[in-house]
Specification:
It is built from 19 helices and 37 strands. With 684 residues, it is α+β, with helices and mostly antiparallel strands. A hairpin with a 7-residue loop joins strand 35 and strand 36. The two termini are 33 Å apart.
Length: 684
């Protein structure tokens, strides 16, 4: 698989080099991230952000390595730092000749005269260990490498003022051990073949450009904890090991082989289920690897194999809604149904009053249940798993949980969630809370409350009831009651139709009456497996979304003609949250739109073309992944979280389903041409 590859046209321009980020993950919530240019621009950037309570408790331990190469009597800084006053010094990004991804691992080539140094970063699967390897690819003599390790010990959402903070830095075999304070988790920085010298000097006021744009504290301090020195010779790489593990492996070559084998196995599983296998475009193969970055272990006291999904990097945790929406694309579409099964069983443990958690807090407190749709997406994920695998055992095991969900939603549960017995539709919401996926809240201001009967919630409700009727016989249950409820919900769904607008209301029976605001939520009434709409109305919904909401990278959350529309997402927290669902484009909605187009028009090639702009986006924002959101106005710049699970998952799922549909279409019989017409055809 060819990697995403940049030369000096990107790496040699500071603005473009620092606007593109890279990401490595370890499958237990930890990660490493940074920019192509090497500058820290976010508080979340670092070489080792460890999940001390997997998959949460994420703590920045090693921020960066400041590298200097001495070659032929000249010193070349390979690192760059922006300071709080805006200055950039040194300017090591000017020596980057090439950047590319090898799988998901970032690789830099630094050119120092005729010497060429390869640097790559990766993480050990299922361990809080990052490897940074340097190799001299060419040169007329050796290169002397000096590496200053800058460390920290803070919550990854925070910033640091070092001042009088004294950490304990101790020499150990192969390097240094850092203990930030009594009771802190020690971590090591090791390098077989390098000389390590402890240090203790705070580097103050790193300037974080991305945090300036977010209206947040944009200055950070890091401790220079030690310096490593080594000589690079061709064929003899140097590997630094950054780890919280008791005995991390120092063998960089074996560690790199393990990383490659892990990603090779992922692609191998994908090939078994992927509709095109090795013939799939490279950007789809990149998404297969990106999908794995979000899948994490969530060990429980009685089940260490429990699993979940990180909603997005670098700042989100595992969210129930995002997990269930993402599950089919991240796991079933990639040949990892066993992982999907473990995630479904994990979340079954947390069902409470018919609801699954919206979020597991980063610091490990009790989960929060303020979501109406997560449990309905859970039912759809179970249906999708059975459709992909035929696993009746799981259905039988989990069916009581599904019954609890539907029963509680029917009878009533938290936040005003309950079925209206008159029309069979679900209502939800209370003053001051936001329970649909459009959940932005600033203080007491719920930006899009959507209290009442929301269109996508009831599309999901109708689908969940249909899924229950289909799955019930597998659990030795009669389907009739679910069928009756589904039929009533389908009749009730007629109330959503807004004849004047030629599409659906967004919310009906809201406190101020029916809400006809044009938002993308109605697309699910077309894209989900069961649609309560007639074919004609499906086409009208699709047309409304296509004309007013569709963009290259997803659907706008509000039509531009609305006076509340905001076409740019930026500013401080209040400004950003105020724009989050008021025009901002959501990447995860591109997949459902493309699938809705396929259902309405039956043209796989046309539907698949809607996804193609994402192939170019993979070279932007977080390289190799897909961003959370984009500006509503052209050119639809990426915003928000740079790598988002449901954006990757829904793009990948849609591509796979559309491609499979194309392969299943009967091919028209070929017509044999002859004579002059055939000759003209060969020449044209």
């Amino acid at each position: 698989m060819n990697g995403l590859d940049f030369g000096r046209e990107i790496c040699g321009n500071l603005a473009t080099a620092e606007s593109r980020e890279w990401l490595c993950t370890n499958g237990i919530g930890g990660f490493a991230s940074g920019t192509i240019g090497g500058l820290l621009t976010r508080r979340y950037h670092g070489l080792l952000v460890a999940a001390l309570k997997p998959p949460v408790g994420r703590t920045l331990l090693v921020a960066k390595l400041d590298e200097t190469a001495e070659y032929d009597g000249r010193a070349y800084p390979l690192f760059s730092n922006r300071w709080a006053d805006g200055s950039v010094e040194p300017r090591g990004w000017r020596h980057i000749e090439r950047f590319h991804l090898d799988g998901t691992s970032p690789v830099w080539h630094f050119a120092c005269a005729d010497a060429l140094i390869d640097k790559r970063v990766w993480m050990e699967p299922a361990a809080s260990t990052t490897y940074v390897r340097y190799e001299l690819l060419r040169g007329s003599g050796p290169v002397r490498l000096t590496l200053k390790a800058l460390v920290n010990y803070r919550d990854f959402h925070a910033t640091t003022r070092g001042e009088s903070w004294a950490m304990r830095v101790e020499p150990v075999a192969g390097g240094l051990r850092v203990t930030a304070f009594d009771g802190a988790r020690p971590f090591v920085i090791l390098a077989d073949g390098a000389r390590a010298e402890p240090a203790h000097e705070w580097y103050r006021r790193f300037g974080l450009a991305a945090e300036v744009l977010r209206g947040l504290d944009a200055a950070d301090d890091h401790l220079h904890a030690g310096t490593f020195e080594a000589t690079l010779e061709p064929g003899a790489p140097l590997t630094l090991v950054l780890s919280t593990e008791t005995e991390p492996s120092l063998d960089g070559e074996r560690a790199w082989e393990r990383r490659q084998r892990h990603e090779s196995d992922l692609l191998g599983r994908w090939r078994k289920v992927g509709p095109m296998g090795d013939k799939a475009p490279d950007w789809i193969k990149h998404l297969v690897l990106a999908a794995d970055q979000f899948v994490v272990g969530r060990p429980l006291p009685d089940d260490p194999s429990s699993m979940s999904v990180i909603a997005g990097y670098p700042w989100f945790g595992d969210w129930g809604r995002d997990t269930m929406i993402s599950l089919p694309g991240l796991t079933l579409a990639t040949g990892r149904a066993d992982v999907a099964r473990r995630i479904l069983l994990t979340f079954a443990r947390f069902v409470d009053r018919g609801m699954i958690p919206n979020v597991f807090p980063d610091s490990g407190q009790e989960p929060e249940y303020n979501t109406v749709d997560a449990a309905l997406w859970y039912v759809e994920a179970v249906r999708a798993h059975h459709a992909a695998t035929g696993d009746e055992t799981l259905v039988k095991q989990i069916f009581p949980v599904l019954e609890e969900i539907i029963g509680c939603y029917r009878d009533g549960t938290r936040y005003g969630i309950g079925m209206d017995p008159v029309d069979g539709l679900l209502r939800s919401g209370e003053p001051g809370v936001q329970v649909t996926w459009m959940d932005a809240k600033v203080g007491d201001w719920v930006v899009t409350p959507r209290t009442g009967k929301a269109v996508e919630i009831n599309a999901l409700w109708y689908n969940a009831l249909g899924a229950m009727a289909a799955l019930a016989p597998l659990a030795s249950q009669p389907p009739a009651r679910w069928e009756r409820m589904a039929e009533q919900a389908a009749r009730g769904f007629e109330r959503f139709w807004n004849a004047g607008a030629g599409c659906c209301h967004d919310v009906i029976d809201a406190p101020d009456g029916d809400d006809g605001t044009l938002r993308p939520n109605q697309v699910f009434a077309v894209s989900l497996p069961r649609s309560p709409l007639s074919k004609e109305r499906q086409a009208q919904v699709l047309d409304a979304c296509a004309r007013h909401l569709f963009t290259s990278f997803g659907l706008r959350s509000l039509a531009p003609g609305d006076p509340r529309y905001q076409g740019h997402y930026g500013g401080g927290p209040v400004e950003r949250d105020g724009a989050y669902h008021q025009g901002t484009v959501w990447g995860w909605l591109l997949g459902p739109f493309a699938l809705a187009h396929l259902r309405v028009h039956g043209d796989p090639e046309a539907a698949r073309r809607f996804l193609e702009p994402m192939a170019h986006h993979l070279a932007d924002a977080c390289v190799g992944s897909i961003a959370e959101i984009f500006d509503g106005d052209p050119p639809f710049a990426p915003r928000g979280c740079p790598a988002q699970a449901w954006s990757v998952a829904e793009t990948l799922r849609a591509w796979c389903e559309i491609t499979a549909a194309a392969a299943a279409r009967p091919r028209a019989p070929s017509r044999r041409r002859s004579g002059a017409g055939a000759r003209r055809g060969r020449l044209s």
